[in-house]
Structure formats: C-alpha cells, structure tokens
Amino acid sequence: MSDSSSFSLLDDRIQRFIWAEGWESLREAQEAAIPLIVKADRDVIVAAATAAGKTEAAFLPALTHLVASDPPGLIVYISPLKALINDQFGRLDRLCEQLEVPVWPWHGDISASTKKRFLAQRQGVLLITPESLEALLCNRGTTVVAAFERLTFFVVDELHAFIGAERGKQLQSLMHRIERVIGRTVPRIGLSATLGDMSLAADFLRSGKGPSVKMVESKSSGAELRILVKGYEEPLVVRPDPTLGVDKDIEKDEASEPVTPAQVAAHLFKNLRGSNNLVFPNSRREVERYTHLLNKMCETQRVPNEFWPHHGSLSKEIRSETEAALKQKERPATAICTNTLELGIDIGAVKSVAQIGPPPSVASLRQRLGRSGRRKGEPAVLRGYCIEDALGGTPSIATELRLDTVQMTAMISLLLEGWFEPPMSKGAHLSTLIQQMLSFIAQNGGATIGQLFSLLCGPVTPFVGISKEEFIELVRHLGQKELLIQDSSGTLLHGPTGEKFVNHYTFYAAFTVDEEFRIVSSGRTLGTLPVSQSLTVGQRILFAGKTWRVEEIDEQQKTVFVVRARGGVPPLFSGGAGRTHTRVRQRMRQLLESDDVPAYLDDVAKRFLVEARTRYAARGLSTALAVDQGREVLLLTWLGDAANEALACLLQRRGFTASAGGPGVEVLKQSSTTDDIVDVLMDAAVDESPPLGILLANAKNLQREKWDWALPEDLLRKTYASLNLDIDEALAWARGLPRRADE
C-alpha cells in the first residue's frame, strides 16, 4: 500500500484492519473515493461493478471522519432491502468493533430494546430502510432533532433501485426533512453498480444541485465475459411426451403445458449442477415452474436437490434457506429467482447467470451478470434462453419477427458496448407527495399550507415541479377525501380517514403492497399469494418449487391451507417485464436489417434470427410504416414503450382505439385506413402539444401508485404522464412521417 496516497488518509486502526484482512491494494473506486469523502464536505456518487468494493469506498473514509469527530458522529446507511442491512451489519461489525463504533440495524425485525439504545446514544452507524426511517420521523417527532443532531453522512446503497420509483421520492423527501430539522446540509454518498446517465443520478441524489455532486465511476470490467444464447421452438400442437411416464394423476391442464420449459430445464440441469448459479425467469410464475421442473429432475435421478426458489411472495424463512444454500461451501446450489437476488445481497460468488427470455432492461441484465465472475481468474458466464412459437397458420408479428430472440440479442449487444438505460428521474410521484404531507403532519402535530409547500415543493425540493395553485387544489381535494382537515387557526391536521391510514403500519411504505393470502401447510407458513389470484378448494398449485392441493380457504384470516400433492400448475402471478427503451427497439431494427450473426447464438437461435430477417425483408418492413393485422393496424415506430403509449393517447384523443404494442402502436381499423391514421398523427405533430387534461381525457386505469386514488384528476394525469409517456419523442416521430404525394 506504500504507493497509495488514499490509504494514508485512513485512520490507523482502519489501516491495520486492511492489512490484517490481507488486502494487497485498494480498488480503483476506493482510491478515487477516499479523498472525496474523508473531509465530509461534499456529495459523492460511487458507481462501480458488483464486488468492486463500493461499500468500503464509502465506509472506510466515512468512518475515518467519524472517529476523528468530537463528539463522535452518526452515519445513516439507507438500503432498499432488510436483507442488505443484515449483510452490511455482518460486514461492518468486525471493523467497527475495533474502532469502538456501534452499529445499529433498524428495521421491522429488530427489537425495541436495540432501537431504544440507539436513541439513547445517537452515534455510530445506523442501518435502516426508507420505511423504518419514515416510521421514526412519524412516531418520534419530538426526538428527531436529538436523534440526528450528530448526523455526518447519508449513505444510500443501490442508488439505482430508488431512482424513478415512489421509494426514491420518499427517500429524497426524508433526507431533505431531516436536514431541515437539524438546520444544515449533510453530505450524501450514493452507491450503485448500474446508473446509466450519471448526471441524472447526481440530480436525484441532491435535487436541483446535481452539478455539485462529485463522481467516482470505476470502468474496470474485471472478468472475461462468456455468452451463450440458446433457442427453443414451441410446437404448434403440444402433446404429452410418452417417454416422460405421465400417469393418471397428472391433470389435463398440466399435460397441455408447453414443452419447451422442460427442455430449457434439462439444459440447466445438465450444465448448472455442481456449481452455484442464478437463474432469472421473468416472473414469479416462471420461477415456480422452473424450480418444480428442476426439483423433479433431481428426484428422478436420485441426486440431492441443488435448485432453490427465491421471490418476493415466499416467506422470509424460505428465502433465507435459499440464501444460506448459496453461501455455504459444502454443497452446490442454484437459485431460481426474480429481481429479489438482483441487488447486492451477499450470496457469495456464482459461476454463471441464466436469463430465460429477454431481461426487463439492459441495466437489469448488467446488474444480474455482475454476480458472476467474481472469483479471481474466473470468467463471467451468461446463458440466455429464447423460446419462440413455431411458424405456421397465421402467426403474430412477434412470432414472425422472432421478437424475443431479437430483443435479447439487441440487449446483449448494447450491454457489450457499455450502454444501459438512463435512470427515470423525471417522475412527479405525486402519490408520494400525499404520503409525505401526512407524514410531516404526524411528525409535527400539524402544519400550515405554507410550511408544507415550502418544505416539499419549493426550490431545490423533491417535488419542485408543483405550482402553488396545484398544491392548493391538492390540499382542498385531500380535505374532500377527509385525509386532511383545517382548524380555526389554519393548521392542517389529519382528517378521520387520514388518521386511520397514518396509524396503520402499512402507512410507512410509499409503494402499494398487494393484499395477499398466507399459504400454510401443517402449521408452517410457506409464503403469500396476491389476493387477485383466483383459488378454489381442490385446486393444485406450485409454490416454493413443490406441488400443493388447496384444502381450505379462510377469507377472513386471508389464509390458504394446503397439503402436498402431485400434478399442479404455477399460480398466475402478475408482473415481470420492464418497459422497453427506444434505444433497445432501434437496435432490434438494426439487427433485422443487418447480415451480422453474433457468435454467441446457438444454431436454433441463429435460425430464429435468419427467419426474422427473411420475414422482415419479405414484408418490406424496412420502409413499411404499418402492418395489416386484420381488424387492427400495427404502426411500426420502433420506439420505446413511453413514446408508443403517448402516440396511442394522441390517437385515442381523436377517436381511435389504440394501444402501445411491442415495436409500435396497435390501432383498431374500424372504417379507417392506414392513411387516415397517419394523417391524424401528422396533424397532431403540427399542433402544439395538447394539455394532459385533453390528451388523457378518456384514459382509464391511471391509478398506478399507492395514493393515486386521492389525487384530483388533473394531478393524476400529470403524475401518470410524467412516469409513462414521452410526448416529445412521440411528436418528433410523427413530425418525421413522410407526406403523401397528393398532399
């Protein structure tokens, strides 16, 4: 370390700890971050690959500053996951014990006595989620100043997971409120492996002052990357395979299940056994399907099970079992998971990552792949699996153009170029504004309209885009909903409905949590299912990778009692795919018009790409504007979902039935021709951008976030548009449409 100027800036005890740990040198990100953080006089973002030492890049200098302070200060580490807090507690506790710095985990599973001891000492490292921080402000309003008077740093882990989400707005607001209470600015450190546009991330970390945030971006890629994408074709007619030994107990619906998942599972079984891996299908339903198939193969071949499920509806105990299986070194383990294992939970190194179907985004794929190749000398390995329906009959445009294969190939090509989606930083998230208004009133026992507007919507605040007129309209509407009342002095208080919400534990989360049923077997809770899942007594379901028969449904207690059974189909969980960016769709189009065939595609995937290009050329889609689909016309825009949805809104405003659909916009023809549809868009392009009240006048189902139901209509449209529509990109595309010769 003799040639490291950053190492010399650290406290002597931290230097000795680093030597004792056997570090040969500081990582690139640590060398750059330590001088920026150690003085505690600026905001810093550290962006580096998974396992590049980001946590230490923040905590080594932050703790150095902390122990030099008199009296000792406080670091507030904010994580999106309780599991990450538990991991960080394990990582920090040994170091902090030598420094005599207490570490305080604080979330729903932590005892009241631990929290009480923190509030008595108010120093060290507080590890907390946004929800627990919200609860602390709401319930201990009179002690907030004392609790945070020594605050030295905010450290925000997995920064990308907050940007563009309700929790992100909540987090911005909580940090801002604490700074206002203690009367000073507190340095903020953001840590992330995936950020895209660093300037947008900086403006998120410090609203309105992004240019002042210092950047540490480690470009070192580390491991060699190996990629294989395999194609599988689903037959037009699915019949049970007699070689599988299907018996009479198997349900008819199971016998008609698609055959390709079993083929994919067989390849996974053959190639992943004996090592630790992560497999990402695109939904909880598919997690259940593949876990079941792989468990069944282990059972059939009489080998120990190596495949474990992990998703948000499973109980904490089952998720912990999977995490423990990955961490222990005695036996290999592979997790079949959703994005619950995409973030930085410590599960050790994995040999490979498998992605079934196109990932939600390039950024997500990069985050997932960062789990592989972490051991010195080992490559990072990505296995992709593309399933396409066989051509025949009247195939959809998605089947003809093999869009899943083309999209995955496009995403991998962008990943290899180092591109990934910029963070969605422009969302208004007015749902979260309502929550923060109610929270601040709880913290202070009331507030005036002026106080709330200045705190939350004034210059350099989280909700700066809201005008005074809009805010007053919102307050009046919340009064009509009985969320707020105003006393004779003008102070805003919780109304009857507001009181009920704020006093319930679910208030602290800024995001919607689906009401769920517990799944119980022999007195043991296996996990939960969303209440929207339709269940009947006698039905067989897959859950936690096993088959269960529903014995009883207790509606009042929201509990489903099950027993082990044979047969079964995965429960229909919702969710999965992300919103596709225009850059991805444009790359898909480039691939369809190119002759290059990536070497990482297997023979079937190459055939899919060739078939897609053949159909694309035969239909003349390089110049065609639309595809006739019978009752509908598909306008081929090759734009992202936000621009396509905006185009659909422009058409709906003019009386068409339209919706965003894959690489374009699907429009019901009725009595209109394609030319009529194009003419309408061209007219829209020359007009001024329509007000949202007009553009979304006929739109339904705009309530997507937790408190959207309490927004007045115009503010609901504003927040929806900010999150889901790119009107400027849509109009720019419409302006580029070719004029007809007769015009």
What's this model, at a glance?
The protein is α/β, with parallel strands linked by helices.
What does this structure look like?
This protein has 743 residues and is α/β, with parallel strands linked by helices. It has 28 helices and 24 strands. It has 5 domains: 7-217, 3-Layer(aba) Sandwich (Rossmann fold), CATH 3.40.50.300; 225-416, Rossmann fold (3-Layer(aba) Sandwich); 430-506, Arc Repressor Mutant, subunit A; 516-564, no CATH class; 624-743. Residues 238-255 and 568-577 have low confidence and may be disordered. The longest helix has 18 residues, at 82-99. It is globular and about 75 Å long. 40% of the residues lie in helices and 17% in strands.
Distance between the termini: 73 Å
Q: Give the count of structural domains.
A: 5
Question: How would you sum up the major sheet?
Answer: 7 strands, parallel
CATH class annotation of the largest domain: Alpha Beta
Please state the average pLDDT score: 87
> How many β-strands, per DSSP?
24
Strand content: 15-25%
Name the CATH architecture of the largest domain: 3-Layer(aba) Sandwich
Radius of gyration: 27 Å
Roughly how much helix do the residues carry, as a percent range? Answer: 40-55%
Instruction: Please state the structural category.
Output: alpha/beta
CATH T-level topology of the largest domain = Rossmann fold
| Spatial strand order of the main sheet | 3-4-2-5-6-1-7
Number of helices: 28
Q: Ranges with pLDDT <50 over ≥5 residues? A: 238-255, 568-577
